[in-house]
Amino acid sequence: MTAPQSVGSVTGVLEAAYPLDWAEAWDRVGLVLGERTAAVHRVLLAVDPTVAVAREAVDRGAQLLVTHHPLLLRGASFLPADDGKGAVVTHLLRQGTALWCGHTNVDRSTRGTVGAWLSLLDLRAARPLLPGETAEEAAHGSSRFGLGAVGSLPVATTVGELAATIADRVPATARGILHTGHAEREVRTVAVCPGAGDSFLEAATTTGADVYITSDLRHHPALEHLDSAADPAAVPVLIDVPHAASEALWLPLAKELLETAVPGLEVLLSAHTTDPFSGRAP
Length: 282
Fold this sequence. Notes:
The chain has ten helices and 15 strands. By secondary structure, it is an alpha/beta fold.
């Protein structure tokens, strides 16, 4: 039987592949809860550290919960046990389950969310969406790429076909995949930013991409983007992917990383979807 690893050694693998200094200055990544010396033989991976996910981690016997989104991104002055974030902290600490979060450091990695989207779309000649990203090699086959990417599809397709392909390959949600413009419009060059990316609408437009794929597109920025050119074909079509579904593509990559780098470690994927919407009216 393989001896258990420690919280510190397992999170050390994650931080070697996704260095903490790759994160944005405002981000909060790394070990949030737990003792670095505590033993770990089972890990649960999830997108968000919700109360349901924290309970799942404990119920499934995980000594370490790894999530993409931080628990306390904006900080907290009070964490009572009957509050959402307080309940997460209380439940995990009482049961001795540690919590590690990787966010924009993971987003930048070829073994993170941007890498997952490069693979899903099979983008050719891909380059960072935002200029100025510094290339850097990390451990375990991970390299710093950027918060988004631009590249070419192997074969031209249509907006409707591309949206359908994405819908088939990301976790299902009640809302599904939305797009602007005509479904029959041809697309070949793609810009993509996993997670919330409407702040990069202008950057996506300047790349000359035919379509921009991201999440959490707000009404006014999206409308202003579409209205910014007299010819609608002069700006990228928008495809909106639910946030949790977009970033859940990283979880299998993290599972493969940990199982390869830490032999004997059991790595589980959460059975919970953390998309907040559960239904839609026809």
